[in-house]
Amino acid sequence: MPSGPPTTAEEALLWAQEAMTSTPRRYLFDTHVYIRMRERNVSDRSIWYAIRNATRCVPCLPDRGKLTSGTAWRISGPDHEGEETSVGVETFIDHLGRRLMIITVF
Q: Are 46 and 83 a contacting pair, CB within 8 Å?
């Protein structure tokens, strides 16, 4: 197990993509993301595809501050309909190992 969450965009993107495609599931949705999904008409499928097909990952600081002891990122990529979608996430480690918290949709 790694000693901590990723510190580079490349590591964070790989971490997020692995979390989205792993079995068992290694990602969680913060309740805030559901509000943003409804406001922006974005589905969980769109988020899954945007992270899986990401073309960009940059550090960010969530408006509400970090929810975990991890690192925060803005990941952008095309969703299942080819629309560019940006997602705010946090990469962190807990008692279950490497995890991803999906916190918002921009």
A: yes
Q: Which amino acid is at 28?
A: L
pTM for the whole structure: 0.90
Strand-by-strand arrangement of the 97-105 sheet: 27-29, 97-105, 84-94, 71-78, 56-59
Q: What is the pLDDT of residues 46-92, one digit of tens each?
A: 999 999 999 999 999 877 777 888 999 999 999 999 999 999 999 99
CA atoms within a 13 Å half-sphere pointing along the CA-CB vector of 61: 1
Quickly list DSSP for 4-70: SS--SHHHHHHHHHHHHH-SS--EEE-HHHHHHHHHHT--HHHHHHHHHT-SEEEE---TT--SSSS
Whose tokens are 């510190």? That residue is: 7
